[in-house]
Specification:
2 domains; 2 strands; mainly alpha
């Protein structure tokens, strides 16, 4: 319990540091590093043996956030992401042929998912931090910070409230074959705690910081409730993957919390869906 608490505090301090430096290249570099660590953990669990695929895929995953952040400065914004994806997939399957006896198709397919969807989900931190530039009439710079905190609150505080609610009140198992410790009472407590946290966050920003008011508390309640549920699905999805490959955690970089993927499994789902909601809001409102 002590290791878990210490790791949680360190992770929180780490997150605060990144938020403070969110308008510097540091944020993009850290996002790229987290992406590589997460992809590496997944590939290790999968059991990727093809060294060429391993190194090429990890390099690609780390370049994805940097591509999104710096492509304008580098003058490569004209390069379509669909073309990059097509080339990447072809290269991986060509590398499969170099060691086809030890490289299964499902491994390559899993690597493609791990090193495209995971980097893109992490990159939504960058997208959310640029919303005031993308939709100048709808959001200000305080919205950028709010959206990042909103996503982290919806993911991590839902998990925290669910954990303690489950320990105090949990009686009915939610998905015993996937995650035996999760309960219905814990899930309800997690959603309520996540929504309450996001509402408090919104009230503070709306009263003290926002200069543009694009949405209200109803939007926050609905979106945070949906994101809390989505985060739980992300957590359960990660549990299914770990069960499929017979491992307890994706890694051990965070004592008591496992690896990067164990800490961000729900967050990646939440951040991706939050980006969808915010984009729709920016276009529709």
């Amino acid at each position: 319990m002590l290791k878990r608490t210490v790791a949680g505090v360190l992770a929180a301090l780490f997150g605060i540091g990144i938020i403070v430096l969110r308008d510097t290249p540091v944020m993009s570099i850290v996002v790229a590093a987290l992406t590589v660590l997460a992809a590496r953990e997944i590939e290790k669990v999968i059991g990727v043996k093809n060294k060429a695929i391993y190194f090429v895929s990890l390099t690609f995953s780390g370049l994805v956030p940097l591509f999104y952040e710096f492509r304008a400065e580098l003058g490569i914004e004209w390069i379509p992401t669909t073309a990059v994806m097509a080339i990447y997939c072809v290269v991986l399957f060509m590398l499969m042929l170099t060691d086809f006896k030890n490289t299964k198709f499902e491994e390559v397919a899993s690597v493609i998912i791990a090193t495209t969807l995971v980097p893109w989900s992490f990159s939504t931190l960058i997208f959310l931090n640029d919303m005031s530039e993308t939709y100048t009439a709808k959001f200000d710079r305080y919205h950028d910070l709010f959206f990042i905190l909103f996503g982290l609150f919806a993911a991590w505080l839902t998990d925290t409230f669910a954990y303690f609610s489950g320990r105090l009140l949990g009686k009915h198992k939610m998905c015993p074959e996937i995650s035996p410790k999760k309960t219905v009472e814990g899930a309800i407590g997690g959603v309520l705690g996540g929504v309450l946290s996001c509402v408090i966050l919104f009230i503070i920003f709306d009263k003290k910081f926002f200069t543009v008011h694009s949405f209200g508390i109803v939007w926050v309640i609905v979106v945070s409730a949906v994101l809390s549920l989505v985060g739980m699905c992300g957590d359960l999805t990660a549990s299914v993957v770990k069960r499929n490959f017979g491992v307890k955690d994706f890694g051990n970089i965070l004592p008591g919390h496992g690896g990067v993927m164990d800490r961000f499994d729900s967050g990646l789902f939440v951040l991706a869906m939050l980006y969808v909601f915010v984009t729709i809001t920016g276009i529709a409102l």
